[in-house]
Amino acid sequence: MNNLLKGKKGIIFGALNEMSIAWKVAEKAHEQGAEFVLTNVPVSIRFGTLDELAQKTGSQIVPADATSVEDLENLFDKAMEILGGKVDFVLHSIGMSLNVRKGKTYDDLNYEYYKKTLDISALSFHKMLQVAKKKDAINEWGSVVALSYIAAQRTLYGYNDMADAKAILESIARSFGYIYGRERKIRINTISQSPTMTTAGSGVKGIGALIDFTERMSPLGNATADECADYTITLFSDLTRKVTMQNLFHDGGFSSMGMSARAMFQYNKSFDDPEDITETDK
Ligand SMILES: NC(=O)c1ccc[n+]([C@@H]2O[C@H](COP(=O)([O-])OP(=O)(O)OC[C@H]3O[C@@H](n4cnc5c(N)ncnc54)[C@H](O)[C@@H]3O)[C@@H](O)[C@H]2O)c1
Q: Taking CA atoms, which of 65, 107, 115, 200 is between 20 and 30 Å from 124?
């Protein structure tokens, strides 16, 4: 192991089960020598398998609803107590939409659900940053990462009000990144990840088709949760100290593509007269 995070301390939000992106980040952070506190909302701790991850990584769990400033204050206090000082990295890996869950379409949103979507999936990021800053809980040259999705920039069928949440999330990374960078040399970035089969991912309408489409469109193929965790570790490490206020696509090249030969080949299958495609183009 390279010990890229040796001596670093952190807080990891959002590991529900072993499919979670945050779970993979915790495993890899542990492998790379970090110590951290795991957190999730109490109901997810009850229904998920976070205890197993805590045991595996020698970590403690501090429950917190990321929409509650009070919970976040308690979390940062407890984390500093447990870890014996300020933290160096924070992962925000949180998303949820009741409109998506209950099948409400974007032109028939329930506004109470909509507010919850934004609060859980976006404003919670601002809340944790504001709490951390007020408590001076992150060391200089610390790194904060939140997970995003390309629906912040492009419209994808069925992503619904989560698209708005991701757009706000990415904007918070820039706006807070300026202040936290200027005052405390702390960097804030979002990683825009490929569609991934997780519990949250499987709630996205047509996720199977979406994963197949982006796989065919991306020259390097979809990025897996494990690969996302690898990338996140680099952002927590000292090797990326001047990267801040960025939305970083981690998607095998998908975000720069318009049409690929593999996707066109598949598309043409539905027509009577498919265009020729060479073996190497596939
Ligand atoms: N899976 C994908 O296709 C994909 C793609 C791009 C980005 N992302 C993003 O990655 C992040 C992690 O999602 P995942 O795919 O690992 O799914 P996941 O379901 O494993 O994780 C989502 C987490 O959000 C937590 N959460 C929900 N409400 C909360 C609250 N009020 N307070 C604290 N935590 C709360 C859940 O308990 C869960 O652990 C999300 O931001 C998601 O939007 C996922």
A: 107
Strand partners, 192: 148, 249
Q: Domains along the chain?
A: 9-281 (3.40.50.720)
User: How far, in Å, CA of 240 to CA of 118, rounded?
Assistant: 29
Q: Give the C-alpha separation, 77 to 224, whole Å.
A: 33
Ligand 1: nearest atom to the Cα of 169: 41
Residue 143 pairs with which residues in a beta bridge? 89, 187
Maximum Cα interatomic distance, the chain, rounded to a whole number of Å: 67
pTM of this prediction exceeds 0.70: yes
Q: How confident is the model at residue 57 (pLDDT cuts 50, 70, 90)?
A: very high
**Residues written for the chain:** 282
Write out the E strands in the chain.
9-13, 35-39, 60-61, 87-92, 138-148, 187-193, 247-250
CA atoms within 13 A on the CB side of 108: 6
Q: CA–CA distance from 57 to each of 35, 75, 275 (Å)?
A: 8, 19, 52
Which residues form ligand 1's pocket by a CB distance below 6 Å? Answer: 13-14, 16, 20-22, 40-41, 44, 65-67, 93-96, 120, 147-149, 193, 195-196, 198-201
Q: Are 155 and 137 in contact (CB under 8 A)?
A: no
Q: Give, as one character, the DSSP assignment of residue 202.
A: G
How confident is the model over 2-53, as pLDDT tens digits?
799 999 999 999 999 999 999 999 999 999 999 999 999 999 999 999 999 9
Q: Which of 34, 156, 14, 10 is nearest to 85 (CA)?
A: 10
How far does residue 38's CA lie from ligand 1's centre (Å)?
14
